[in-house]
Amino acid sequence: MRLLSDKSGFGRVYEAYERSQPKILKVLKETHSRNAKAVELFHKEAIVLMQLHHPGIPRVEPDGYFQFVPRQSPDPLHCIVMEKIDGLNLREWMKQQGNHPISEKQALNWLVQLAEILHLVHQQNYFHRDIKPENIMLRSNGQLVLVDFGAAREMTYTYLAQLGGSSGVTRISSAGYTPPEQEQGQAVPQSDFYALGRTFIYLLTGRQPTDQGIYDSLHNEFHWRNHAPQVSPLLADFIDRLIAPKAADRPNNTQEILDRLVQIARAPALHQSNSTSALPVTVAQATPQPESETIHLKEFAPRRWWIGGAVALLIGLGSVGVWRYQQSVAPTVDSETLEPMRSLIGHSSFVNCLAISPDGTTLVSGSADSTIKLWNLATGANLRTLQGHSGYINAIDISPDGQTLVSGDANSTLKIWNLKTGALLHTLSGHSGYINAIDISPDGQTLVSASADGTLKVWNLATQKLLHTLSGHSGYINAIDISPDGTTLVSGGADSTIKVWDLSRSEVLHTLSGHTGFINALEISHDGKTVVSASADSTIKVWDLATQKLLHTLSGHASYVNRLAIQPDGKILVSSSADETIKVWDLQTGAELRTLTGADAPLDYFVVSPDWQTIATGKGDTTIRIWDFQD
User: Fold this and answer.
1) What is the C-alpha separation between 71 and 79, in angstroms, rounded?
2) What share of the chain is helix, strand, coil (3-state, %, to 5)?
3) Do 120 and 267 lie in a common domain?
4) What does the pLDDT read at residue 185?
5) How many other β-carbons are positioned within 10 Å of the β-carbon of residue 285?
6) Burial letters 125-143, b for 16+ CB under 10 A, else e
7) 456 and 540 share a domain?
8) Is the Cβ–Cβ distance between 478 and 519 less than 8 Å?
């Protein structure tokens, strides 16, 4: 309908209509269509928004990203169609209000809303990297919306990249809102907290963070409190902690922010004036807050703050990883560096899932480019490309006889293929959300699919008949595994619980609780006695499947644990994490035996060959790497 913005060096923003529904159409500028990094970042915004479901995030449908080739140009235009937010951004809103500072009560309300949104984004293993008033919109119903996810990165990628003007790929920097580590190209999730704090200094004072009236650049001091007399010392100290120069001095995570906001809202000091408002705040000395017990927000905010949700691209497979900024977890063994034997290049978008055939000869990869590729594992040759999906491929599995491949996508469909010929045999429909995980029973007769719709579906693989729909989880299901005897199914996901099912009777036998983050991976040992769970809480838990007793908690990883594998003899467990390492554990004792790092690439999501000599990695990248995994 009309051009809304052409100011960015990255893209143009239009108002468009889909039938009678107003939409936003973002188009990558033609001059950037041949810049691989620009295209990748633009595509990344679509991927992020498709996976995050919350009223505080613009909605993008699974087919919201597309390419269009104009007649006058051989290069395609890259486009994203997203929800149009019915409101102003906070910079516009402040101007409309005469730049009058907001009240503490309103600040707390908005802080909680934005913390809820970031809670989801960070739990999905992403961080925003460009929070500022222009990127926060206010719906007519009062809901804040965080927009412009073009700068969002998986937490593994701490370098910054976004196209700016004609200078090529540059760092993301918004004057007054960008933290020191991000200016140096080392953004971490806590970088979002800094930008959030700077944003609220603007909202509470009506002055830009670069305003000389509140920032003394010579001494690197903020004097913002005397411009916000309505702010209590508790909230002022909290905001100063958000903007601490060192990322380690800021809150550890979004949960800590939410808990602290509850305490501030409940404190009598909320209604007191700031007696220290005249004192300057030295940026280098933010006031640390004591550790606090978890307090739920239901007494403060009428809505539920916990946000379920995951997609295989980001959560079920652990999403490629978290920040390089290491948490204080001391390594127990010296790390060993692996050199990749070969790299497989062919996908045009991110690799989401991998599988190796039972005979160890064929590697299968599923990608966000909606294709499946078959590779010779020994030589790296691309054997075949399977096309038929219309959405991102999130999960694949191969039958025990090596004849059948099953794949699941973001459009809620499953496809069954002849692995030898590449022929598409069947398409199964029934889920109403993304397919996050699939598993074929050891006898090859049963297929189980797990979805973002919160259900598991049990299918007869030979007849394609839906046998059962299992409900019981309160959030997206990210991981499943069928026991070696085919009688037991375990599932886990966004509700942080593991459910143990009798597969034949479709009944929940037990619920295992203990993790404090999403369940990303599950593995049952080959003797069927032990189940191992990996979580976004950075731990691995080992359970006795018969007694449901927790045997061990393995805490060596510094970030989300994404993938597990158990050796056939049941003695060795291998795990990969968003900290970009693979760890080898003694499954019987819980002792860490080895820590492996990649020479030129992260060791994140992996699959291991049947002989346990080779691993393949490739999550969140277009390149698949093959590594020698021998002792």
Assistant:
1) 16
2) 20, 35, 45
3) yes
4) 63
5) 12
6) bbbbbbbbbbbbbbeeeeb
7) yes
8) yes
Whether residues 250 and 290 share a domain: the answer is yes
Q: What is the CATH number of the domain that holds 54?
A: 3.30.200.20
Radius of gyration of the chain (CA): 25
Q: Closest Cα partner for 84 from 151, 17, 152, 133?
A: 17
What contacts 191, CB < 8 A, 6 or more positions away?
Answer: 127, 129, 178, 179, 181, 182, 247
Q: Strand 507-512: give its sheet, edge to edge.
A: 477-482, 488-493, 498-502, 507-512
CATH number at residue 460: 2.130.10.10
Reading phi first (left if > 0) and then psi (alpha if -120 to 50, else beta), residue 331 is in beta
Query: Worst-scoring range by mean pLDDT, 86-90, 142-146, 248-252, 276-280?
Result: 276-280
- Note whether 519 and 498 are within 8 A (CB): yes
Q: Identify the three-state secondary structure at position 571.
A: coil
Q: Give the chain's length.
A: 631
Question: pLDDT by residue (tens digit) across 288-324?
Answer: 333 333 333 333 333 333 333 222 222 222 222 222 2
Structural domain of 57? 1-84
Residue 460 predicted with pLDDT over 80: yes
- The pLDDT tens digits for 208-259 are 877 777 777 666 677 888 889 999 999 999 999 998 888 888 898 888 898 8
Order of strands, edge to edge, in the sheet holding 435-440?
435-440, 446-451, 455-460, 466-471
Residue scoring higher pLDDT (176 or 285): 176
SS3 for 461-518, per residue? Answer: CCCCCEEEEEECCCCCEEEEEECCCCCEEEEEECCCCEEEEECCCCEEEEEECCCCCC
Phi then psi for residue 579, to 5 deg, are -80, 5
Do residues 96 and 169 both lie within one domain?
A: yes
Burial of 617 (0-12, 13-18, 19+ CB in 10 A): buried
- d(Cα 342, Cα 229) in Å, to the nearest integer? 62
Total count of domains within the chain: 3
Confidence at residue 598, expressed as pLDDT on a 0 to 100 scale: 87
Which 8-state DSSP code applies to residue 312? I
- Residue owning tokens 């893209």: 11
Could you tell me if 256 and 346 lie in one domain? no
Spatial contact of 66 and 79, defined as CB atoms under 8 Å apart:
yes
| Residue where a domain stops, chosen among 307, 328, 357 | 307
Compute φ and ψ for 13, nearest 5 degrees: -120, 125
Domain match, 510 and 612 both: yes
pLDDT-wise least confident of 36-40, 112-116, 262-266, 294-298: 294-298
- Of 84, 105, 139, which residue is a domain's last? 84
Same-domain status, 59 and 96: no
Strand-pair partners of 18:
21
Mean per-residue pLDDT, 37-61: 78
- Shared-domain flag, residues 220 and 349: no
Which tens digits make up the pLDDT trace of 172-196? 445 566 666 666 666 677 888 988 9
